[in-house]
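Re: the 380-residue chain
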Amino acid sequence: MKKEIYITDYNCITPLGFNVDSNWNALLAGKSGVALHKIIESQDAFYASGINSETLNGEFDNVFVQNTHQEFTRLEKMLLLSLKPLIEKHDITEETAFILSTTKGNISLLKNQEQLPEGVYLSQLAQKIADFFGFKNKPIVVSNACVSGVMAIAVAKNMIQAGKYKDAFVIAGDEISEFVISGFNSFQAIGSEPCKPYDKNRNGINIGEAAAAVYITSEPSENEKWRFKVLGDSAINDANHISGPSRTGDGLYGSICNAMKEANVSAEQIDFISAHGTATLYNDEMESIAFSRVELQNVPLNSMKGYYGHCLGASGLLESIISMESALQNTLLPSKNFEEMGVSQPLNIITENQPANIRYILKTASGFGGCNAAIVLEKC
C-alpha cells in the first residue's frame, strides 16, 4: 500500500502580497497585480504582473537583517522570503528533500555578460538556497516549461512514496526579464490589455512573477491546522509542437485521466478545477477540448492569470496554493476578466465569488514542447 502524502503548509510572494493572507484578501476584493510595465527601454510599456523591487528589498532586509553581507539576486530574495516561514515550522533532516521549480532562474544575470555567470545555472541557484537554509541533501531541480510547478509537487509525492525521503520543501519562482519578454514577443503572444482567459476577445498573455513554497510530508503532525492529500498525478508530453498546444488536447486529456485514476476519483466527484488558462487563442481552446473529453465541462473552473499573469515555473505551485486556500475558505474565486465564452467546448467558468464545499481539486498545467500535467488534491 502506498504511503499517503500530504501538503500541510504553504506560502507565497506575489505582487498582491508577501503572505497567503494578504494574497487571499486581495483576491477576494478582485484586485489584480497586472498593470503597465516598461521593462525594455526600446519598447512600449506592456501589461504584466510585477513585484515592486523597492518593497521586495525592504521586506528582505527586514526579514534577513543578519544576512545582508551575502549578495542575492531579485529572484533569490523572492525564493528565500517564500520559504522562510515554512523552515521556521518544520525540521530539516537527513530524509528531507529540497525541490526547486523554475523555468529561467537567474536568466537576468546573462545581460551584458561575455561569460556565463555561475549563478545562471539552475543547479547553482538551487544549491545557494539549499545552503542558506542548511539542507543536507543535494537539491532537485524541476524545469519543464510551464508545468514545472505542478510537476514539482508530483516529484515530491513520488519520491516520498518510493522511500527516498520522508518529507520535502518545494519552492518555485520566476521573474519578469527582458529575455522572457523578448521570447514571448517573438511568438506575438503578449496581450495588448489585461489578459482574459477563455474569453471571446482574449488576445494573449500577461507575464507575471512570483515565488511560492509548500511543505509535503508522509508523516503530518497532529498539530497541523489543515492538510491536503496529494491523491494522484500525471505528466504527459504529446510532442505536438515546440510552442503550440495540441489541437485535440491529447496530452492534457491523458494527464487528467491518469491523475484521476490514481486518485480513484470520478469526474462527478471533482469540485473545482484550477486550470492553466493563459488567454492565448490555442491554449484555452485546447483545454476546453480536454476537459470536455473527460466530462468535466460542468465543474466550476477558473484561471488565476487575470490576477497574477503567467508566472512560468511558479504558476503551477502558486495556483495550487490558492486552490487549497479556496477550499479552506469554502469560496470559489472568479476567473478575472472573463465576459463571453470564447472556446468551442462548454466550460463552467466562475464569474463571481461564491460559497462552495470543496473537497476534491483538479489542478492542471500545460506548456511549451507539448508538456502537460495534472494533480488531484483532497481536503482532509
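The chain is about 30% helix and 20% strand.
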